[in-house]
Amino acid sequence: MHTNKVEICGVNTSKLPVLTNEQKKELFERMHKGDSSAREEFIKGNLRLVLSVIQRFNNRGEYVDDLFQVGCIGLIKAIDNFDVSHNVKFSTYAVPMIIGEIRRYLRDNNSIRVSRSLRDIAYKALQVKERLTNENSREPTVAEIAKELKIPKEDVVMALDAIQEPISLFEAIYHDGGDAIFVMDQVSDEKCNDENWIEEISLREAMHKLNDREKLILNLRFFEGRTQMEVAEEIGISQAQVSRLEKTALLHIKKHI
Fold it and tell me: pTM for this one?
């Protein structure tokens, strides 16, 4: 996604206005009186807020124009529902609304399709969770949510997992002005750690010190899964000889490692 382009959806982002708190307050007063031009001016004055939010989704492979339009829908919803009497900055209220709108768009247009029934359960579970949190001043357990919905708790877990938004391994989770830390930097791989890598190199070096017959026997036994009898038949020696050569080869490897 090219977020460094100047024009998005026909809007020259380099010339977007920035409203002061006094201007915002004045525009809200005019909007409440039914002034439609004030509403349009307020939207234009907060488009930079949309731009700052869509930067968070620049690794999703989505067209920036699409995300900008969806973000504008979230901005408009925030404007229409904002209550100036709560003494909260508009940006504090609007950013979660814009993010939520973009996440819904990404979820609904995800290549991983989630059935409507599963989504319905998830949304009902989220509503119950919010209500119980407000009532009890703590987050409810899955069992409590399931009890309210009268469904098995396994269904609640499955539904909530299904609507989780996939995260790119290249999404930055921390940035202090230097090199960013990405999700992939926090994911461990027990099969590909330094210790296993060193052991693999040591094993290869030890294998090189074996003679051709010992290499063949170990390859057939441990890489192809043959029995000692099958190895004996293939190379034309007795099973006892195969057993002896195998043990000798393993001792050589252990010594070199």
Answer: 0.43
